[in-house]
Amino acid sequence: MALVLPLAACENEIVGGGDPAELTVLVDEVEDGFGEWRGDAGDFTGHPYEPEGLEISVAYPEFEGAEAFSEALAARVDQEVQDFRAGTRDPVSLGIGWELVAAGDGVLGVRLLRTEQDMHGLREGYSTYWYDARAGAAAYSTELLAGQEELTELNAIARGELADDDQVDPEALWPVRRTYDSIGFNDAGDLVVEFSDGHLSPTVEGHVPDSEPGRKTVVVEHERAEPLLSDLGTRAREAAMVDEPDLELPGTEADEGEEDPGPVPGVITAGEPGVNCYDGETKCVALTFDDGPVEATPHLLDILAEEEVTASFYLNGGPALTRPSVLRRAYAEGHEIASHGDEHEHMNKMEADELPRQTAAVSAMVRRQTGYTVDLFRPPFGATNDDVHDEVEAQEMAEIAWTIDSQDWESISPDEIVDNVISRMDPGAVVLLHDPQPATLAAVPELIERLKDDDYVFVTTTQALGGPEPGRVYPDGWDGDW
């Protein structure tokens, strides 16, 4: 197997040099004032799935007086390794290198460059992470923006700028954290957004997105970008434009009167806010869709958006790999994303050593596309046993079945699907549906209308079940022995 070395280990060539599409790079090798951590596969243990023979070479900087930043970089690199192991097919090698892209006024910016190889080939990925010494806190790239509204505006700008690029699917662009995982500034102080290889490529049935188009960028001139920036973003811009890196970091400034900055832009909370399914009055129902995303899922999302209905999507590994833009859309639109296992097979008939990969794969794929950590797992067919329970619990997820089976998988008509659900409906129901079934999509509008007429509120699985606990199986007493 070939070891793919990180860029930081390959001659350390600085790539800025006035190209407006390149982030300013101040330093890309160790200098006085900071050090570097290096590790290989043996340094990353305790992951749910650790395939043998995978070559890993990782480096990231460590700064004096910024221990919180070092800890954050270590955690994020560990997550990258974990998710590459579990969320790709036949992984071969992963290299992670670094560049210092900002250093001044108590702000540090580090760009991590991933070079990864699996059965689908070689590709590169990019992300920037930031440190505010005044706050003593690390930040994601989206925190350079003032909020979700500003990220949504930046997403609209990016769609416009890339609209004529035949190598880009505009529907792949959604205002979620992992899509906007690498934001920085060029030599002129303009905002630069870069997208990893293949992240925006059009969907091709049965294939993962093509990484051949390589890195895509959007440059937003400062006058246009300035209103979108947070205070950290404004200071990060100045820190990216310094003549020499300033690694003298001020102490943390406690400000008791400072307002809560709110959620990280690009981190979406699923479900209807403020709904209490256990207040004795609200009638809740969770529509759940298994086996996607598929070609029909965008149409289903259109229906849900038009009806202002929240749902939960339980994804399989193959579809999640080949249609990542659809799962990003579902997440961006406030639907709950959950795992339905990697392969759609009876997990209760698998050997115990097969279960870690089957359980970890979709979680890793979703996190690589959105940044969201899945906490609900539905075994295919609802088939389960003690080994499955133990593995799902070990990966800190709740195991979810259903309370109403629409039986749409039995090739019945749309009317029969609706009747099957309505006739068994009770408050707090979790309804099993499948978005690959044409009859299901035909049934959904009437099903929604009937439930609305009966004053049901559409919620996520988590809301319907009152916050499932990791390690528990829902509903209580679920057998799954088939």
Automatic annotation (TrEMBL):
SUPFAM superfamilies: Glycoside hydrolase/deacetylase. Residues 283-459 form the NodB homology domain. InterPro entries: Glyco_hydro/deAcase_b/a-brl, NODB_dom, Polysacc_deacetylase_ArnD. It comes from the Bacteria. Keywords: Hydrolase, Metal-binding. CDD domains: CE4_NodB_like_6s_7s. This is Polysaccharide deacetylase family protein. It comes from Nocardiopsis exhalans.
